[in-house]
Amino acid sequence: MADHIIKQAGLRMTAPRAKILDILARSGKRHMSADEVYRELQGDDAEIGQATVYRVLTHFVEAGLVSRQSFDGGHWVFELNRGEHHYHLICDRCGRIVEFADGLIAGRQSDIARKHGFDIRNHSLVAYGLCRNCQRSLARDAAPFDVRPDPTPEPGARRMAIRAPRATVDTPGDRPFLDPGIKTSAR
Amino acid sequence: MADHIIKQAGLRMTAPRAKILDILARSGKRHMSADEVYRELQGDDAEIGQATVYRVLTHFVEAGLVSRQSFDGGHWVFELNRGEHHYHLICDRCGRIVEFADGLIAGRQSDIARKHGFDIRNHSLVAYGLCRNCQRSLARDAAPFDVRPDPTPEPGARRMAIRAPRATVDTPGDRPFLDPGIKTSAR
DNA sequence: TTCAATGCAAACCGTTTGCAGTGTG
DNA sequence: CACACTGCAAACGGTTTGCATTGAA
């Protein structure tokens, strides 16, 4: 249950919070937008407003349960905080996301920050390009332009100029989150 | 003049384009939002609409003259493309931005990408924290909360939850852009 | 002379906020 | 029983778009 995790984080337990944490924990997608969380909730019985989703997610971020970032300007993307800081590889075409951690980069970056007198609290590295599959697809049908990504183009996709992903899943090393007694650094 | 640069990039020359490129080139700020560009234009004689600013900037990005990114979810920030890819250190408190390039990080990252089968086209590394000045200020008046940043708080600043910069200047090694015959890779 | 670029204003869309009602601690 | 949390709907703010007009090539 998500219950004790929320309390351990110093938050009041409520139904919306439990459900949202649950969704983040169980969803196939590691990275979800507020709207995706909201829609997932709709299928459920209880009525939970968008505002609540945003507020709860913000609370989670502040409490350190969840991390938030925006891949290249779109909307916010939320991700359960599994403790290990990591970076992202994103496919411009299909939206596939691959996570990776790298001490060398982290160290180098913090050296540089120190040299500039910065006290770093957070950082993100995101690389955009084509995943293996999409490289293949593109080569295969050698279509010069306007090839539709294999994963469904998603109906309400706004023309995001230049770059237009809309993340789908993918990540190595899956590990349960809610079940084991995870130690939340309460605040 | 910006004229031949725009043409070299394969774009039709128009007054708005010349002016906007000029502003990006001459402004003290290396990183400008569309709105900042727009406001800078207002002081000028000619009437140029916001839509045009957005459209022109988008064209510039597509032509490779300008690069665009969003520091942690806010709006887009545009920056004249000076050829050398670089990363950013951003002060959470005053918005100061420091740029740095690092081959080691770039190399490492592209190795990792290759290992995952990705063909990277672009990447960004941004680190958030406190610059030296802000660390000092905070220590000095040891105010636990709600300290106002030294650089004016900027009136229309939306409460961006968690993080709320609003960039001001700062960058090492200034180098003119428009004057020398820069080689634009036209497309 | 044609078709891309512009200006204006309205539309969009993700996110935030005000307010009255609800339910946790 | 107080006060944080919720739902709803309206507000917000950055960006995009439709359409008639202008102007570069």
Describe this structure in words.
The structure is a homodimer of 187-residue chains. Chain A is of the alpha+beta class. Chain A has three domains: 1-82, Winged helix-like DNA-binding domain superfamily/Winged helix DNA-binding domain (Arc Repressor Mutant, subunit A), CATH 1.10.10.10; 84-142, Dna Ligase, domain 1; 144-187, no CATH class. Chain A is 34% helix and 17% strand. The first copy, chain A, is built from six helices and six strands. In chain A, the strands form two sheets. Chain A has a three-stranded antiparallel sheet. In chain A, a hairpin with a 7-residue loop joins strand 2 (66-69) and strand 3 (77-80). In chain A, helix 3 packs across helix 4. The radius of gyration of chain A is 18 Å and the shape is flat. Chain A binds a DNA duplex (25 and 25 nucleotides) through helix 4.
Name its key features.
homodimer; 187 residues; alpha+beta; Arc Repressor Mutant, subunit A; Dna Ligase, domain 1; 3 domains; three-stranded antiparallel β-sheet; three-stranded mixed β-sheet; 6 helices; 6 strands; flat; disordered C terminus; DNA-binding
> Which percent bin holds the helix content of chain A?
25-40%
Mean pLDDT of chain A: 80
Task: Name the structural class of chain A.
Answer: alpha+beta
Overall tally of domains of chain A: 3
CATH superfamily of the largest domain in chain A: Winged helix-like DNA-binding domain superfamily/Winged helix DNA-binding domain
Instruction: Please give the number of β-strands of chain A.
Output: 6
The CATH topology of the largest domain in chain A, please? Arc Repressor Mutant, subunit A
User: In the CATH hierarchy, what is the class of the largest domain in chain A?
Assistant: Mainly Alpha
Our measurement of the CA-to-CA distance between the termini of chain A, rounded to an integer number of angstroms, reads: 20 Å
* Largest sheet composition of chain A: 3 strands, antiparallel
Please report the two chains with the greatest interface, counting residues with C-beta closer than 8 angstroms to the partner's C-beta.
A-B, 43 and 43 residues
Q: How many alpha or pi helices of chain A?
A: 6
Task: Please trace the helix and strand order of chain A, writing H or E for each element.
Answer: HHEHHEEEEHEH
Side by side, the strands of the main sheet of chain A go 1-3-2
Strand content of chain A: 15-25%
CATH architecture of the largest domain in chain A: Orthogonal Bundle
Radius of gyration of chain A: 18 Å
Given the C-alpha coordinates, what overall shape of chain A results? flat
**Low-pLDDT segments, ≥5 res of chain A:** 144-176, 179-187
- What multimeric state do the chains show? homodimer
Keywords (chains A, B): Cytoplasm, DNA-binding, Iron, Metal-binding, Repressor, Transcription, Transcription regulation, Zinc
Subunit structure (chains A, B): Homodimer.
Protein name (chains A, B): Ferric uptake regulation protein
GO biological process, one term (chains A, B): negative regulation of DNA-templated transcription
